[in-house]
Structures are given as structure tokens and as C-alpha cells.
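Practice problem: predict the structure.
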Amino acid sequence: MNPSPVNPAESLGVVLVTIDTEANAHSLARQLVEAGLAACVSLSPIQSVYRWQGELHTDPEWQLVIKTSLTRLEELTQVITEHHPYDVPEIIALPIAAGFTEYLAWIGDQTQKSGREGE
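Answer:
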């Protein structure tokens, strides 16, 4: 791999998504990586406390931490909403301000619309 120059403040980010089950978390993560919309998705079991439709809930969920190019956020959001069981899924994008240069270059390479490694 030849890392390309990356300005993380302009293009790379982490997108947070919660989902109901481990199976759905793995399925969504695979779809995003296979489509080149995510370089990597980390999955963790969590407990969420929230108010929905006037009622307080405490539920087990799975947190997806999606490493991606924010230039693909619209496409990423479309895939998530199409394959997510919630009416209003959590989709929160945070820019990456800095990081290990080679890792950031890898994220950029993996989430380009074409020319991803292995294609």
C-alpha cells in the first residue's frame, strides 16, 4: 500500500451508530466495509438509557464505531437507514482531528469510491 496524503481535518471521521442486536451489528458492519463506506467498524455491547415516545427506556444495544471518509457520509447514512431496524437510528459523525498518519491514509484509501485495495 502506498499511503496517499490525507488531511484528516477535511475528510476523515468516526461515525457512531447504535443498533439492537449483535447479529444486526455484525451484518451492518460487514455491509459498510464491503461497500467501501467504512475502513473498519469496531463493535461493543453497551447499555443505553433514553426517552422515546414519552417513555424512559434502558436497553442493551451494540455501538458501532465506524472509521470512514466524511465525504461518503450521505451514502453511509443511506445504507444505515435502509438496513437499520429503528425508526430513527443514531448516526453521529465526528471529525478526526489527528492520528497516526499511516492509519489515517489507510482509512482514506479504503473509503475511496474506486481504487480500494483488493479491487
